[in-house]
Structure formats: C-alpha cells, structure tokens
Amino acid sequence: MTHDYAASYERNFGFFKDYSREAVFLDHVFKTFGTDVERVIDIACGPGSHIVELARMGYRAAAADIDPAMLARTQGAAAEHGMTIDTHVADMRNFRLSGRFDAALNMFYSFQNVLFAPQQQIGFFQGVAALLRPGGLFVIELLPEENNLRLYPPGESFVTHRAVEEDGSTLTVTSTSRIVDETRKDIVFLYETVLPDGSFEHEELISPIRRVYLPQFEALCAAAGLVQVAAFGACDSDVPFTDDSAKLVAVLEKA
C-alpha cells in the first residue's frame, strides 16, 4: 500500500466490490423506483467505478469527489470507453453543488467515513436533496451500527478476503472493529501476504467509521425531505434488508 490514496484505492479495497454487478442493481433500482431517470451523479465517487459502468449503460453521468486525482481516474476510465463524464471537486463536509439530477449515489460507506459532526451529516443530506428533482432518487450504502455490533462484535477478527494473486502470493485480509467513543469506531484491516518464496508481508489500514444507528439515519432522511422507498441488505435486488444484514442499501425519494 502506498501513501498515494488514489493509486492505492483499488489495491486496498477493490476486491470488496463487483462494480459491474452493482451497476446492474442500480439500473434495476432506477427503473423500478424512479421515473425517467437519465441524469445520475455519484458523490464521493472514488475512481469512478460505479458511474463509469452506469455511463456505459447510457445514463448521463456526473461524478463528485474531494480528490482531484480520483476525478482524473474517473475521467480516464470513461475515456477508455470513448465517453466523457462531468466531474466536480466537492467536499461532503460542506456539500454544495449546482445542477439538477434524477438520481444520486453515495456508495461504499463514504458517508460514515467522512461525516462525523451532526451538522455535517444534516448538511450533506440536505445538499443531496437540493440536487434532486422532485421524485428523484438517492441511493446510499451504510453500515447500521445496531446490526454490526451483533454480527461483528468489537475486538473479534473476521476474514473478509482471501485470494491467490497473479504472482502466486496469497493475500488474506482480516478486519477488527475498535470502539473509540459513542460516535466513532475504527475498523482495522490487516493485509497479510504469503509470498511465493514463503516469506511474509503485512500491513495495517485503519478506516474510521461514524457509528450510525437506524433511527439516526431515519432522522437525517426526514430532515432533508427524503422518504425511504426500498431497503436492501446488499447491492442485490433479491436480498432484502433484515436484522441480520450487515449493510443497508437504502433507496430514498425526494418528496
């Protein structure tokens, strides 16, 4: 792992996601719960993996991120397919963008990775709502704290990924959550690699997470005039959200 976050993002986190499959899910959501969804913006887009897939499906795509290097990667990925994507440098902590969209995305728990102050959270939800036309959709992915405390007790380690790399090495990733205070916890990812010669490498990455309980999330939606119209336990239309779901993929509609 490197200190260049944009360059290392896919190396560190790419294996957690099947972007093509998730884009199919998002397309299903837009067609099932939306009306005439054409213009879509991905907020905190990272390297643009979701929005590029949606652009390939024919959506008029835009992307926002605080990191210009991430936006450059998004534009580069789009250019490889002969497309252009409007990009905007934007900070979720003081979220202000102009424009009007039929749908917005905020995926991979970035809401919880970035926004720790209550006013920042409310401001972000209200800022997203301001971008949407009436009836527009907001799809957000988060980790509901009450479910995760039960499914992944703090202090216990869980294997989240194991695979043989192209060079023959074996990578194992484990995660352990540590409670910091009432509002924050850290998820510690340990990357352990067994090289082909039998030697070991290991690195640690700490991801801060804002602890968000479902009633808090519902209050944020209400404050922004967003109504939940569907809830999934994964980026899969066949997986409903339940008490045993580690993640919530919520589909919100602007009233």
Automatic annotation (TrEMBL):
Could you tell me the keywords of this UniProt record?
Answer: Methyltransferase, Transferase
A GO molecular function annotation here is: methyltransferase activity
State if Methyltransferase is listed as a keyword: yes
CDD domains (UniProt xref): AdoMet_MTases
Domain Methyltransferase, first and last residues per copy: 40-136
InterPro entries (alphabetical): Methyltransf_25 (IPR041698), SAM-dependent_MTases_sf (IPR029063)
One Pfam family, short name: Methyltransf_25
Instruction: Kindly list the biological process annotations in GO that this record carries.
Output: methylation
Please, which domain of life does this record's source organism belong to? Answer: Bacteria
Locate the transmembrane regions by residue number: none
Protein name (Swiss-Prot/TrEMBL): Type 11 methyltransferase
Q: Which organism is it from?
A: Blastochloris tepida
